[in-house]
Every structure is written in structure tokens, then in C-alpha cells.
Automatic annotation (TrEMBL):
PANTHER family: PTHR34580, SLL5097 PROTEIN (PTHR34580:SF9). Residues 153-223 form the WYL domain. This is Uncharacterized protein. InterPro entries: CBASS_pafABC_assoc_protein (IPR051534), WCX_dom (IPR057727), WYL_dom (IPR026881).
Length: 338
């Protein structure tokens, strides 16, 4: 199958040619039509590429296009038979059907979330329409979900507000008692799940701060605001979240190289499931332990990950993080002292 970036454009051009009942397209005409469409791309194709494209369009892996060869003298032109065929109307093949059914099975697992209860009504209709309806069978995929998590009722309204670019008025109660309940105008930008909790990131208009994150379980109320929506110009995936673990980001905290010793019994798990995408192996020692490095901001979530298996990790640098974890571990030990 041709997989280069112009393939879909070539198929569309050939589709239009084969479906035109008012003109006869010989091979040279097809080459010219495709090259006209590719002019803006700065490239051209020849006879062999067009024949390969036609072969793919006729194949089971392609569109199963009914392309008929019609002779006129010593030349042959091509046309759909029936003429009303189109690659845009061709049914899905076995592979696409299987992939779609797998995707629907994954969506089924979201039904248990309160904000996705609409899937209960929608999924059976989709399956019946696509011919996937079958007797009930046991679930074969499970998510690590928290059905009792508070705040899920806000997930769908926030998703819609982001998609529709709607500013919201939010009533919020932090876990910190001194902060109390507050209300403010908020421009939601992205949603993120971490450690079985959902967070929404966006601009707090009242504080004039673009990067506030709110835990959904602490939102008391949300409603549409009369303010015009403001888009925060940042690449959330490749910039904001790239140098942190979880959701906490202190802009005054700099990204650092963090070197960590990992015990031999923990090393295979840390290598197969890296702590962060920046993880690099620096040293493999004779006793089976390893030394790794991370390039990120040493936030609270990083501390939590290291403390969950505290006896299997040791921060070698920076000294500031090493000292911070030392005091947290010391306080934990004191709590166990009789």
C-alpha cells in the first residue's frame, strides 16, 4: 500500500476521474490530473505510481473500486462501473471493522463514569447500525477507575465549555481551610487526569493568572459567565506538562537534572515504566542497581512517587531535593516511634 503523504490526495483525484461520465480518462490524462493537483506540493508522479494507486484502490485492502478498462482503438481509458461508485461511499473493510469494534468496547468501560452515562443510550445504537450487536458478553478490558469520585458531574460541562470556548463562573473550595470558598471567572483550556483525580487548567480572570489548575472534586458550582472567552497561547502537551510529573507546576522552580539510585529489585520496574519521559540510564552497577537521571521540575508529585517506594530509591542530586526527602522520611519514622 502506498503510504506517502500525498496518497490520499491522489486517490481523491483518481476517484473524481473514474466517476466522471462525461470524459474519457486515459493513463496520460490521469497522470496529468494528479500532477495538477500535486502542483502546490512541489512534486510529480509518473505512470508506475498511478498504476500502483489504481491497483491499491481495486484491492481488498483499499477501496475495492470497480474500475473498468474500456478500449478505444489502441488506447484504454478507465471508468467506474457502476459509474456512481465513490471511495467516499465504500463500506469499511474487515480490518477497519475490527478496529472500530475494539474502540467501541473501550468506550463501554466509560459508561460507569457519571459524566459519560449518555454512552449507555448511544453505544447500542452505534453497534446496531454498524452490525456489531451481539449477545451480552463479559467485559474484557478494565480501567483503574474510582466510581465514588466526587466531581465527575463537572467533567462533561467543562469539556463542552473548552470545546465551545465558553468562559465560566466557578465556585471553588480548596482543601486549605484558610483559603475558604471563592468565586471567580475562569477560562477552561484543558482537562487532565492524574492519580484517579481530574483537573482543569485555565485562566483565572480575577487573579489575572493564565495557568491555574482546579481539582474537579473541589468545584462547588459552575455556570456560564458573561465574559468573552480568552484562549491561553501555550502548547500544553509539549511545553506546560513536559517538565513535570502530575499537575503541580511552580513557575519559580527551575527544571533540574535529578540523579537517582534505584535498588536492584526495583530497577526492572523503573526501566520498563519510566518515572518520566526524560528518564535516562546513567549507570548499571554490578549488584543490579542502576543510576538514572530525570530532567524536570522537582514538584510534589515527584516526591510522592519516590516516597511510595522510599527504601528502593535514593536521590543523589540535587542536594535540595535530597534534604527535603530526608526530612519527610525522618518525620514519617518519628510517627512510628513508640
Amino acid at each position: 500500500m502506498p503510504t506517502n503523504k500525498n496518497a490520499l490526495l491522489r486517490y481523491q483525484v483518481l476517484n473524481n476521474c473514474f466517476g466522471n461520465p462525461y470524459r474519457k480518462y486515459f493513463i496520460q490524462d490521469l497522470i496529468a490530473a494528479v500532477n495538477d493537483a500535486l502542483a502546490d506540493e512541489g512534486c510529480k508522479v509518473g505512470r508506475s505510481q498511478i498504476y500502483n494507486d489504481i491497483k491499491y484502490m481495486e484491492s481488498e485492502l483499499g477501496y475495492r473500486a470497480p474500475i473498468k478498462r474500456l478500449r478505444e482503438g489502441h488506447k484504454v481509458y478507465m471508468r467506474y462501473d457502476p459509474i456512481d461508485f465513490s471511495i467516499h461511499k465504500t463500506p469499511l473493510g474487515p480490518k477497519e471493522n475490527a478496529q472500530l469494534e475494539d474502540a467501541l468496547n473501550i468506550l463501554e468501560r466509560l459508561e460507569s463514569f457519571q459524566s459519560f452515562d449518555w454512552l449507555t443510550e448511544l453505544l447500542p445504537k452505534i453497534k446496531q447500525k454498524l452490525g456489531f450487536a451481539r449477545p451480552e458478553q463479559a467485559s474484557i478490558i478494565f480501567f483503574d477507575e474510582n466510581k465514588d469520585y466526587q466531581g465527575l458531574e463537572h467533567l462533561r460541562p467543562l469539556f463542552t465549555a473548552i470545546k465551545e470556548e465558553q468562559c465560566l463562573r466557578i465556585a471553588y473550595q480548596s482543601f486549605r481551610e484558610e483559603s475558604g470558598k471563592e468565586e471567580f471567572n475562569f477560562h477552561p483550556q484543558v482537562l487532565k487526569q492524574y492519580n484517579k483525580r481530574w483537573f482543569v487548567f485555565g485562566r483565572d480572570e480575577d487573579r489575572d493568572f493564565d495557568y491555574r489548575n482546579l481539582a474537579l472534586d473541589r468545584i462547588q458550582k459552575l455556570e456560564d459567565s458573561l465574559l468573552a472567552y480568552k484562549k491561553v497561547e501555550i502548547d500544553w502537551e509539549n511545553d506546560f506538562f513536559k517538565d513535570i510529573i502530575g499537575v503541580s507546576k511552580d513557575w519559580e522552580q527551575q527544571k533540574e537534572e535529578i540523579k537517582i539510585w534505584v535498588a536492584a529489585e526495583q530497577a526492572p520496574y523503573t526501566e520498563s515504566k519510566p518515572i518520566h519521559s526524560s528518564q535516562k540510564l546513567l549507570e548499571r552497577r554490578e549488584d543490579g542497581s542502576i543510576v538514572i537521571s530525570l530532567e524536570l521540575r522537582p514538584n510534589y508529585e515527584l516526591q510522592q512517587q519516590l516516597l511510595m517506594a522510599a527504601e528502593k530509591y535514593k536521590v543523589l542530586s540535587p542536594a535540595s531535593l535530597q534534604t527535603l526527602l530526608y526530612h519527610r522520611l525522618k518525620k514519617a519514622v518519628e510517627r512510628y516511634e513508640p
